[in-house]
Amino acid sequence: MSDLEGKYAKFLEESLKIQRICSVDALLGWDMETQMPEKGASARADVSGQIAALVHDMATGAAYTDALEAVLAEVDALDVDRATIVRDAKEELEKTRKFDPSFVKELATLTSNAHGVWAAAKDSNDLASFLPCLTRIVAMKRQEAAIIGFAASPYDALLDEYDPGLTTASVERTLGELSSFLAPFVDRILASPHTVDARLARFALPVDRQRDVNVALSRELGFDLLGGCFGEAPHPFMTRIHPGDVRIATRYVQDDALNAVFSTLHETGHAFYEQGLPEAHYGTSGGEAASFGLHESQSRLWENLIGRSLPFWKWCAPFLKRHQAFPADLSAEDVWRSLNAVARTPIRTDADEVTYNLHICPRFEIERALIEGTLEVADVRDAWHDGMKKHLGIVPKNDTEGVLQDSHWAAGYFGYFPSYAIGNIYAAQLGEAMRRTLPGLDTMLAQGLFTLPLGWLRGAVHRHGGTLEADEIVRRATGSGLSAQPFMRYIESKYTAIYKL
Ligand SMILES: [Zn+2]
Is 428:486 a contact under the CB 8 Å cutoff? Predict the structure, then answer.
């Protein structure tokens, strides 16, 4: 082993030591949302705080930083992927060093505790009980933005955590472009004399049957169950403990069997990305997803572009029927049309493809204002109602269906919501490019042949991990960086046909 190879190996080993502690934290996170009893919350929050402090200590300690500096001194002699990884690690170290370990510990403890407070407040429609917690979190996130530093808005510093390169101004532009197309388009759809009945796709199925069929569906799509597993949680999610252990949590609704099917499609898309990351770079930024927006593009592509397409249902309806999980008298075409019904509804995660991005607009405006200090936490319900009215033309009937519906703010995830809109845009870009490369895509989907579409995503997106920026990955795969045009084309052509506009 050459001297430089030895130095890189040492850097990788020190990175992996930190990563292993993060694996423990991910496993605890999984446990918190799927298993942990209520009385375990407070002690668990202390554990999370201590782990965050330990990771901070290790990431700024001599063993890791000496190994990083040693390889950094010869970074130009490394191959391009590893040079990027080392430069990214240096940038991350500079950022980590700005934080006092006590700040990191306090924020982790606070957000871990907040999860239970938020969940109870949501269950009992009691916003007041969550507001003190939210006030402390907003204050700490504002402090975090100040510590990181920013040019124009403190919200820029938080956005950058999820989608590097995004700014408040660029998000405002992108969401503005989407909403000026979507808002009048929704009006046209809802004014159409041709209506679509969403109730056809709602049918009951015992939860035990749902469990079996969702695991079978995910495996059929290509989820590797030797390197992953399924669980249940009130809020569906996916997490990677390490490359051989990727987990999906789904929620089963007895009276609406396809609800879980769409969660499974979504989370399986996320899981594909994690199972396809370059394992050689595990422990470094190169072994991670390039951005949250790109991650979300993978889930939305399987959930919507594939999962809400007619060819997919030509395969999926008979597949579900074989598992006694689908009404015998319901056709693929009818369920497909029903699944694409457009309506102004209060819940983001239940929203159709056309109105979905309009749910991101009020969230962006509110969290930006909270972080910039132009909105008080006490006024968040009013802001929610105003935002929903402005962008969707509706007001939720209570806070459970309103400002309390999402877990993000309790977790401290300010700046995350725009990633969903970016994900929808990237998904449409990638979907168009996939279709160009695989002209027989519809036939494959109708026959349940998912190997080629998954393989295309593996080659175009997953294998790069974090060695390229998300926008560069999309540019190489599609010929263009972030562009809303393919998304708008996709929505317009699909829904013009469904609603006979
Ligand atoms: Zn997602």
Answer: yes
Q: 349 C-alpha vs ligand 1 centroid, how far in Å?
A: 10
Report CA(387)–ligand 1 centroid distance (Å): 23
What are the phi and psi torsion angles at 235 (to 5°)? -125, 110
Q: Which residue has the tokens 């403190």?
A: 154
Angle at 54 between CA 227 and CA 107, to 5 degrees: 95
Nearest alpha-carbon partner for 305 in 95, 460, 490: 490
How would DSSP label each residue in 173-211? Answer: HHHHHHHHHHHHHHHHHHH-S----GGGG-----HHHHH
User: pTM (2 decimals)?
Assistant: 0.97
**Annotated catalytic sites, by residue?**
267
pLDDT, mean of each 10-residue run, the chain (501 residues): 92 98 96 92 92 96 98 97 98 97 94 93 98 98 97 96 95 98 98 96 97 98 97 94 96 97 98 98 98 98 98 98 96 97 96 98 98 98 98 97 97 97 98 97 98 98 98 98 97 97 95
- Ligand 1 midpoint to CA 359 (Å): 15
- Residue 12, C-beta contacts closer than 8 angstroms, at least 6 positions apart: 283, 284
